[in-house]
Give the backbone structure.
Amino acid sequence: MIVAVNILLWLVVGGLALLAARRGRMLLQSGARDGAIDFLRLLPRIAIGVIGSGFVAEALPRAVIIPWLGPGSGFLGVAIATLGGAVTPGGPVIGFSIGAAMLKSGAGAPQVVAYSTAWALYAVHRLVMWEAPLMPPRVVWLRAAVSLPLPFIAAGMAMMLARP
Amino acid sequence: MDSRKPHGRRRRRVFDWSTAAIAAISAVAAATVYLRDGSAHFLAILAGDLSLFGEMLPKVLAGCLIGAFVTLILPREIVARWVGHESGLFGLAIAALFGFILPGGPITIYPVAGAFLTMGADAGAVVAFITCWTLCGYTRALVWELPFFGPHFVIWRIVEALPLPLLAGFLARLAVKAGLARGA
């Protein structure tokens, strides 16, 4: 699966490079150079982010967090889950693995939906490490601000639909 | 090209304090794990993190190259017309559709979003784009979410997320219009 995604991504790169090459060698070269410079600039940040997030997730007191998020926890549970999603480190596996662990330990589906939506939308770690450096900060904070109610809306829909 | 330079300068300033903060939090967490669980557990986590880091590199490089090429290839006028602040609800829908279609892991998308801004997309469209990519993007759901949660949960979570990108983009435009934030 991961190999397939890599192939897909590099097919897109190849297609774009081909389009650039058809418009001239200069365009192809400056695209490759700009992309490589961005990549090098990101490297130390990714190293700290990935290695750090593994330890932060391990240090989080899961046994204390999980009892507060059961199906009977209602709106308070959704609020706690949303907050938990926001402070969970933004690496790719961390939020999903904690969310899945929560679900297996008896957390309610709306609470887990709120958690994973909040984590996807505004995990503070990812906002600061990955989004803010690559985008104008005003857009990053605007996006985070308008996203604040979204986990509650998603959880509310999950409660109304009584699924998953 | 010139229009990208101010971003570059801002970029560097954010880099310094944020990286230092994350490094400090990571060090505290690493020390906690080491003291609480012992060196064997510490090394196991470190090895897992390092292999994840290695796995991510080709995807990140691909994402950076996609961002760079998209910036150079897509004509600005067309993007501005499709997803600029005059583009209405249709522009938000187009931006959300881009978010659904474009492949990539959690950090490959921001260079592309930055490129959209450079090319004249408005803040609302970029918000809709990132929100849709992060909540409904198919590669992300397939690669990361499905193995952990199973299809039933993932499908329903995405169904519940479907209206959110347009809502977020709409709220962002309202905030810009009301003068609460500056547009792109």
In short: Chain B touches chain A through 90 residues (CB under 8 Å). Confidence is low (pLDDT under 50) at residues 1-14 of chain B.
